[in-house]
Write a structure and sequence with these properties.
The structure holds 2 protein chains of 2 kinds.
Chain A: H1 3-29, E1 32-38, E2 41-42, E3 46-50, E4 54-59, E5 67-69, E6 76-77, E7 86-90, E8 95-101, E9 108-114
Parallel strand pairs in A: 1-4, 3-9
Antiparallel strand pairs in A: 1-2, 4-7, 5-6, 5-8, 8-9
Chain B: E1 2-7, E2 11-17, E3 23-29, H1 35-53, E4 65-70, E5 76-77, E6 90-92, E7 97-100, H2 116-122, E8 124-126, E9 133-136, H3 142-154, H4 163-168, H5 177-187, E10 206-207, E11 232-233, H6 255-264, H7 284-295
Parallel strand pairs in B: 1-4, 7-9
Antiparallel strand pairs in B: 1-2, 2-3, 4-5, 6-7, 8-9, 10-11
Helix pairs in contact in B: 5-7, 6-7
Classes of the chains: A alpha+beta, B alpha+beta.
Chain lengths: ~120, ~300
């Protein structure tokens, strides 16, 4: 097989691979949920999601927030979110995740991640 | 289920109501050297009674509500979602961890991610019910009891209506024009209200405001979170003019110096500096007006009775 043929083949296959990649990522992406932060509160106090789902934490407040969790199954830290900022967290394993804002400890959210 | 206990000099008494309304009573000898031990023992024994009664039924410890009372600390009522009422010393988080803490000293975090040995070192105990962990910041050491006593005392210091409150209530002459301008700056150009909000002028939250000092503050409890590095709890501004020096370590001697800190956007700019803190470009008049506003938060001086220690 000449190297020219290989490169031609790769060029032909490239769009196929890209389309396949997109559709695969769509299958594995899971549902998207949006949790907003406004008035130093989360928009919900409890949220049920499935493994693979993504939660978009959106700061709709006029102050900065720092959403995080020290839960065993999925610790995460969105770092400082200025007003308007968004951070997505994909939940990869089942369990109960206690979510807090480091800056405002009164902000509490429990995310139940099920299979 | 609801559980109440009272730590007395001789006995620690317990009462528990189950979801069906059944009341269980229990009593153990107090352990004055470490009051927590008797509380733990009683909780253990009561839960054992409940389990014995409810063999085969689903456990419901996550919905446990606790009411605590002792002769050394203030009574407290809990909600099962972990939000402690105002002056509570106790809270229960959603995973069933009972947290005995003094919210005037700190609020959260709570975690059950401890090995048993490590847990005992930091004052977290697992009861015989595997779902129920007890954290005893407020009761298990002499230092903590001293701290509880101190916060009991501090709760007797109250701030009644100040000139600012009379102005809010409609008395236009209660505060000078400069203070009114200062209040507008407070809510506008200086934007102090972002954190000093509500009647008490605090959001009860934690910020690095760029103050001097080596103490990392909240980062001791929440290591690895940049925003918590050198973060301290927003203090009330009620009676602020009476409380010099300022900041967690007294590093700012006067209200004028505090205003300078904020006007500069912090004395020190660390990566976790609160985004609400930035150079304000206040004029000399602005600064005087802000201070005049803060002076209107001083309530009529209340006599404070210094408590005498038991012998």
């Amino acid at each position: 097989m000449s190297s020219r043929f290989v490169s031609k083949l790769a060029l032909l296959l490239l769009p196929v691979l890209i389309v396949a990649g997109v559709s695969l990522s769509r299958v594995s992406a899971g549902e998207k949920h949006v949790v907003t932060q406004k008035g130093k509160s989360f928009s919900v106090t409890e949220l049920k999601v499935k493994v693979g789902d993504t939660v978009e934490f959106k700061n709709d407040d006029d102050v900065s927030h720092n959403v995080f969790s020290v839960s065993k199954s999925q610790p995460f830290n969105t770092k400082m979110q200025t007003p308007g900022a968004e951070s997505a967290v994909t939940f990869t394993s089942e369990g109960t995740i206690e979510v807090r804002c480091a800056i405002h400890p009164g902000m509490k959210l429990t995310v139940q991640v099920a299979k | 289920m609801k559980l109440a206990f009272d730590t007395g000099g001789t006995f620690t008494d317990f009462a528990m109501t189950e979801d069906d309304g059944t009341i269980l009573l229990h009593k153990v000898l107090s352990t004055p050297d470490a009051p927590a031990r008797a509380v733990l023992q009683g909780v253990d024994e009561l839960l054992a009674k409940v389990r014995a009664k409810n063999v085969g039924k689903a456990s419901n410890n996550a919905a446990l509500q606790i009411l605590g009372a002792t002769t050394v600390v203030t009574n407290a009522v809990l909600k099962d979602n972990g939000s402690a009422i105002n002056t509570s010393m106790y809270s229960v988080d959603a995973s069933g961890v009972i947290v005995f803490t003094d919210v005037t000293a700190l609020t959260g975090p709570v975690t059950a991610d401890y090995t048993e040995a490590a847990a005992r070192e930091v004052g977290v105990f697992k009861t015989s019910a595997p779902e129920v962990w007890v954290r005893l910041d407020g009761l298990n050491t002499a230092t903590s009891v001293t701290r509880s006593g101190q916060s009991d005392f501090e709760r007797t210091i109250v701030s009644p209506a100040a000139p600012f409150d009379r102005w809010l209530a409609g008395d236009k002459a209660a505060i000078p024009a400069s203070a009114k301008r200062g209040f507008a700056l407070f809510n506008g150009k200086a934007d102090c209200v972002k954190c000093h909000s509500g009647w008490r002028f605090t959001d009860d939250s934690f910020h690095d405001i760029g103050a001097l000092g080596a103490d990392v503050g909240r980062a001791t409890l929440l290591p690895g979170l940049e925003s918590m590095d050198h973060a301290f709890k927003t203090p009330t501004l009620r009676d602020v003019a009476r409380r010099a020096p300022y900041m967690h370590d007294g590093s700012e001697g006067t209200l004028e110096q505090v205003i300078e800190l904020y006007d500069k956007g912090g004395r020190v700019r660390r990566p976790g500096l609160a985004t609400e803190v930035h150079p304000l470009k206040l004029t000399a008049q602005d600064k005087r007006d802000l201070i005049d506003f803060m002076l209107t938060l001083s309530s009529p001086a209340q006599p404070v009775v210094v408590p005498s220690l038991p012998r």
